[in-house]
Design goal:
Number of domains: 1
Radius of gyration: 15 Å
Largest sheet: 2 strands, antiparallel
Low-confidence stretches: none
Order of helices and strands: EHEHHEHHHHE
Shape: globular
Strand content: 5-15%
Length: about 150
């Protein structure tokens, strides 16, 4: 299985990344790499089973941030769906570094067409913790090789 090379992120803001890790780690917070933000329209038009199939997570009770960029913007107080703003909050170059963090193409999900709904909360936390520890964006192909 091919392993993507880590992407250096020399200006990563470790303090802000830690805040995002805390938000994603909290099991009371919704998480899905498939969607930036869960809008009220998605909550009303998708039943629980379809929502779970599409997003890979149970339907939250209200609109909420969902992915790394969504949580970064929420914590920064930016309520726009703004990847550039999220990248700046995390200290990442946009789009060269942020694209690698926000849209990983993991070989282990090739059979499901790299669908981001399969990227787990745990895998995301591990990638963010590696970024804090090493200053590199590294979605390890072996999730246990942190």
């Amino acid at each position: 299985m091919a392993t993507a090379k880590p992407t250096p992120a020399p200006n990563a803001n470790r303090q802000n990344i830690d805040l995002v890790i805390d938000a994603i780690r909290n099991p009371g917070n919704f998480f899905s790499m498939k969607q930036f933000w869960v809008d009220p329209d998605f909550l009303t038009c998708l039943d629980d089973a379809l929502f779970l199939k599409v997003y890979g997570a149970a339907k939250p009770p209200a609109a909420t941030p969902a992915c790394i960029a969504g949580w970064a913007n929420s914590i920064a107080g930016n309520h726009l769906k703004d990847e550039r703003g999220a990248a700046e909050f995390l200290g990442l170059a946009f789009p060269a570094e942020s694209e690698k963090l926000f849209r990983p193409r993991l070989e282990r999900y090739k059979d499901v067409k790299y669908d981001l709904s399969h990227v787990t909360r745990e895998e995301t936390i591990e990638a963010l913790e590696r970024l804090v520890a090493t200053g590199q964006i590294d979605w390890s192909e072996d999730p246990q090789a942190a």
